[in-house]
Specification:
single chain; about 220 residues; alpha/beta; 6 helices; globular
C-alpha cells in the first residue's frame, strides 16, 4: 500500500482523500432572524431549510462564530452542513464565507432563496449566475469573491390567471410582497416544495449538478 502525506493528512490508495481535505457540502437558506420575519416570503429559503432539517428529526444550534443557526445531517451518504444566517439578509455572506475554504469548494455550496421574479411555487436551479438583484445573494457573492456556486430560486411572485408572474414596479410594492406573510395555503405549498428540494439536494450530491438541475427545473 502506498502512502502519501499532504500537510496534516495521511492518504492511502484506498482512501484518496482524508476527511479534513474533502470539500464539504454546504446548504444555506437565506432569510431574516426573529419571529416577526418567520413566515414572510423573504424567509422562504430559511423556511425550506428548517423543513428539511426537522424532517430528519434534527435541530439547529446557534454558532456564535458564524452568527448562524447550524445543523449537520446526512444526505446521500454525505454529512451536509445546513446554515441559516442570523446576520439579516443583506449580510448573509458574512456567516457563510468562513465555511468556504476556496473558490473550488464554493461549487459544493447551495444557496436557497426567494425570487419575486418567478411565479409562486416555481423552482429554478442554476450555477455561476449573477445575484439578479437579490441582496442576500449579492452579499454571498461579495464575501466569497465568486459567483460560481449553486443557487435554488423559489418563486414567490404574484401570478396572473395564465400562470405568468405579475410585473411589480417600485420599491414599496416589492417590499410589500417580500416582507408580507404567506397565506396558510401558500405556506402549505412551500412545505411541499421543501420535499422536492430535498430530492434535488440528494441528486446533486449523488449524481451531480447537471442531473439535479434537470430534477429541479422539470
Amino acid at each position: 500500500m502506498h502512502t502519501i502525506v499532504l500537510g496534516m493528512c495521511t492518504l492511502t490508495q484506498e482512501n484518496a482523500l482524508c476527511h479534513t481535505l474533502r470539500m464539504a457540502y454546504i446548504i444555506a437558506g437565506l432569510g431574516n432572524p426573529g419571529a416577526e420575519y418567520a413566515q414572510t416570503r423573504h424567509n422562504t429559503g430559511r423556511i425550506i431549510l428548517e423543513d428539511i432539517v426537522t424532517s430528519e428529526r434534527e435541530e439547529f444550534s446557534y454558532n456564535s462564530k458564524l452568527d448562524a443557526e447550524v445543523s449537520k445531517i446526512e444526505l446521500s451518504g454525505e454529512k451536509v452542513t445546513f446554515i441559516a444566517p442570523n446576520t439579516f439578509m443583506n449580510k448573509s455572506g458574512k456567516a457563510i464565507a468562513p465555511l468556504i475554504k476556496s473558490i473550488k469548494s464554493a461549487e459544493k455550496l447551495v444557496v436557497i432563496y426567494d425570487d419575486f421574479h418567478l411565479p409562486f411555487g416555481k423552482l429554478r436551479m442554476s450555477f455561476d449566475r449573477s445575484s439578479g438583484g437579490h441582496n442576500g445573494v449579492e452579499s454571498v457573492i461579495s464575501a466569497l469573491k465568486t459567483q460560481a456556486f449553486v443557487r435554488i430560486r423559489v418563486g414567490i411572485g404574484p401570478t396572473k390567471t395564465n400562470g405568468e408572474v405579475k410585473v411589480v414596479h417600485g420599491a414599496p410594492a416589492v417590499e410589500k410582497i417580500i416582507l408580507g406573510k404567506f397565506k396558510k395555503e401558500e405556506l402549505e405549498e412551500i412545505h411541499k416544495l421543501s420535499k422536492k428540494i430535498r430530492t434535488v439536494l440528494e441528486t446533486f450530491i449523488s449524481e451531480g449538478r447537471e442531473q439535479a438541475t434537470l430534477v429541479c427545473n422539470s
